[in-house]
Design a protein that fits this description.
Blueprint (H helix, E strand, L loop, with lengths): L1 E2 L2 H4 L2 E11 L4 E6 L12 E4 L2 E11 L2 E6 L5 H5 L5 E5 L13 H4 L3 E4 L4 E10 L4 E6 L6 E5 L5 E5 L4 E4 L7
Parallel strand pairs: 8-13
Antiparallel strand pairs: 1-5, 2-3, 2-7, 3-6, 4-5, 4-7, 5-6, 8-9, 9-10, 10-11, 12-13
Amino acid sequence: MEKSSPSEADRRIIIGKVGAPHGVKGEVKIIPMTDFPERFDGMTRCFIGDRLITIKGVRHQKNHVLMIFDGIAKREDAAALTGTFVSVDRSEAMPLKEGEYYTADIIGLSVEETDGTILGVVTDVIRTGSNDVYVVSLPGRSEDVLVPALKKVVREISIEDGRMVVLMPEVAE
């Protein structure tokens, strides 16, 4: 296993999280954090936390992916990985359609209203099933604003410019 540099970590996309060990021979459950669970098929290496690791085997089981890694031969070794993220270099990310974005690219965007008023910064993305919801942290306020990821609300996203333009619906008080 090799360690990567911090600048390399910035170029990675999280695709899963290591769950509990499976069996006694070092296999682990991976909780997919991708819309493309088939992307695990054929992978030969990935990052577990900040370590580059070789994949010896991949198989699917219900909503999880079971993986076995080179150098992880016992249940105890596998248990030590629990809770760490599985990531790949951005160059290995699955291609997206126009208007689709990776969560990692959305988090950190500056959010402004159509009139130019700055609201805050996206700090999280909630996946609801029907549409995502962006959590926007407001400067100087303890509560966050939830912005539904709908075309009628989110008018523009520019990853290159680091901003999102929204038209917030009026709220009756």
